[in-house]
Predict the 3D structure of the following.
Amino acid sequence: MEQGNRYILRDMERFEPITATLESRKFRSEYRVLDMEVTESNRYISQKLKIPIASRIFYFRKLRLVDGVPKSIEKTYILYDKVKGVESADLGKQSFYKTLQEMFGYVTRRSEEEILIVAAGEKEKELLGCGDGELMMIKGITYKEEPEPFEYFEIVAVSDLYEFRSVTRL
C-alpha cells in the first residue's frame, strides 16, 4: 500500500507504539513536555480508567515533533499509584512506554481506540502550526493485563501523520 506523505501506517489489528513505528521508518521523533502533574481525576477520566472520582492520577501533555515539525499533541492519564515517581523521569528524552518499561517493567498488551475528526482549537493551531482545518483525534485506553485499564490517552494530530488499515476476514 502506498503511504504517500504519511509517517505512520497504523494496523488496527495490532498495537505498536508511535515512537517505535517512526524509528523503524528512520524518522527522528522528539517530544516537548508541555504539562505534567499529579492531580485528581474528574468524572470523565475516572470513568475511562474505572477508578473513583478524585483519585490521584499522573497527567502529562506533550508535543510530538517528527523531523523537527510539530505533528501531534498527546495527553496521557494514569492512576498515580501505578507510576509513582515517573514525574522525575525525563519524559522528553524517549518514548513514554519505554520509560514505563524501564522504570516499572510495564508492557502494554492491548489498546482500544476511537478515531475522530475534530476542528482545530486555538491552542492546537498555535502548537501544530495549522490553520482552521480539521485534525484527527485518537482516544484510547491501553491495558497491561485484562480487564483493568492502565492508561487513557488522547492524541490530536495533523491529518498527514497517520494512515489506518483494517483487514476484515470473511
Q: What stands out?
A: The chain is about 20% helix and 40% strand. The first strand starts at residue 8 and ends at 11. Residues 110 and 155 are 17 Å apart (CA to CA). The mean pLDDT is 85.
